[in-house]
Every structure is written in structure tokens, then in C-alpha cells.
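B., you asked whether I could sanity-check this one before it goes into the benchmark set. Here's the sequence:
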Amino acid sequence: MKLSLRYNRFMQDNPKVLVKSTPTLLHGTQEKGLFAGAKIKKDELIAVFDGEIYTIDFEDWTDELVEHCIQFEKTKWRYSNGIARFSNHSCNPNCGIKNLFNLVAMRDIEKGEELTWDYEMSEENVTGWSMKCKCGEKNCRKKISKYSNMPRATRKRYKGYISEWLLT
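And here's what the prediction gave me:
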């Protein structure tokens, strides 16, 4: 029996993860975020970027796509049909990237914590994209743009959770 794509997508989103309102002060225009509805173990899958693939020459980039796609090659990005598109940035994240498209827990996460990742873990943008960071963490870098701007100490701390396309 063949499963539908819709069913497979929902199987990729962790049922322990909730999409809830989040303070816009911290995340700019995004009003939703991902939160742990139950304890999540280190390396547990949170969500998958499983949607359409876009190239740098795509003519109809919308703010939604620009802000919620994950880069996985120099000129390619992928959207999420599931909850991954609601994941927010933090300069002190509890999630990271594995296998190009998987958002996973970098440590054990307690119920109620917001699930965040550092957007520079996948981005080496050639488009000039950047964002003003408002995460409020002590180590906030204030501006997020691309992996090559990430401090070496931060790269070391994220080891194993940075998109492998950036490491080749």
C-alpha cells in the first residue's frame, strides 16, 4: 500500500512539537514559533524542510519564501510543507541541522521551551540576505547573514549541527 505525500509529511513532524504564538519582539515579524509539548531528547527529529526547491533565479520570491526556506547548495533553497517553517532563530539555539533538511535537538529539551536554531547553520547566502537579530541572548551577534560570518568559537560549539553542504 502506497502512503500519500501528505501522510508522509506529517510523519516527519515530531508530534511532541507545538506551533504557538511567540513574542514578536524577539522574532521580528514571525508571530509563531515551535515549542516542546513534552521532553525532547538530544538528536531527536523536530521537523523537516520537505517542500518545494527554489533556485536563485526564481522570479517570484516572496517574503514567506525568503524568510522560511533553508539553503542547501550555493544557489538552492527548500521550503517546508510542515512545521519547520515556524522555527525561529536564536544565537543560543537548542536545535541544529542534520542531513541538509532535518531540524534536530542539540541537547535534551524540556517541555515548554521554544525550539530555535541559528540560521547561519545553513546559510551562505549569495543574495545579500541578512536580518537584525533580536534574540536577546547574552551572545547575540545582532546581525545574522551567512555561515562565513559565524565566529569560530560558535562553529566549534555547533559541531555536528551545521549543514554539511557548508563544510565541504
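One thing to flag: Helices lie at 5-12, 24-27, 63-68, 152-157. Otherwise nothing jumped out at me.
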